[in-house]
Structure formats: structure tokens, C-alpha cells
Specification:
The protein is an all-alpha fold. Helices cover 83% and strands 0% of the residues. The chain contains four helices and no strands. Helix 3 runs antiparallel to helix 4. It is rod-shaped and about 80 Å long. The mean pLDDT is 77.
């Protein structure tokens, strides 16, 4: 069956062409990569920042309680900065790609 004949007689031909044009402009990666960035990256950043802070703060804070508290707050702050900067970067790249494509 020839799809072009069906499209020529369709009343929504213009809106379909526009929808396919917009979908064709998308350059997103697969969902697995996006999910990895969204969930694993902040977790890995938190664990890494916690490990680094544990080594560096261990020299300055004597009590174990303060080492844990300061390390947790530091890792939480670093993770927050990572999440916000990733979101801002993604928004900026999305706007740039959208203005360039459509």
C-alpha cells in the first residue's frame, strides 16, 4: 500500500508534516544513557565527595561524629551543585539545539 496516497487525501497532512519535522530535529541519546546520568551520576558524585572529605577532614576534626557530619554536609553540597549545573547545562543545550533546528 502506498502511504503517500493516504497522506495526500488526509485533512491533517500539514500538522503531520510539522510533527515529523519536530521529531526529526531531536538529537536525544537513548533513555538508558539519560537514566544513568539522572540517577547514577549524583550517587557517584556523593560517594566520591564523601570519600574525599573523609580523608581531608579527618586531619582537622578530631571527633568521629564531626567528621561524619561535616563530610555528609560537604558531599550533599557538592552533589547539589552537580545536579543544578547538569540541569542548567542540559537546559542551555536543549535551547541551543531547538533554536538551531526548528
Amino acid at each position: 500500500m502506498d502511504d503517500s496516497g493516504s497522506c495526500q487525501s488526509c485533512g491533517q497532512k500539514g500538522s503531520c508534516e510539522q510533527a515529523y519535522h519536530v521529531l526529526g530535529c531531536k538529537e536525544d541519546s537513548c533513555i538508558a544513557a539519560r537514566a544513568s546520568i539522572a540517577f547514577l551520576l549524583p550517587l557517584l558524585v556523593f560517594i566520591g565527595a564523601l570519600a574525599i572529605s573523609k580523608k581531608t577532614i579527618g586531619e582537622y576534626a578530631e571527633a568521629q561524629h564531626w567528621q561524619t557530619t561535616i563530610g555528609f554536609v560537604f558531599a550533599l553540597a557538592v552533589t547539589g551543585v552537580c545536579v543544578v549545573s547538569t540541569k542548567l547545562l542540559r537546559t542551555r543545550l536543549h535551547r541551543h539545539a531547538k533554536s538551531r533546528c526548528c
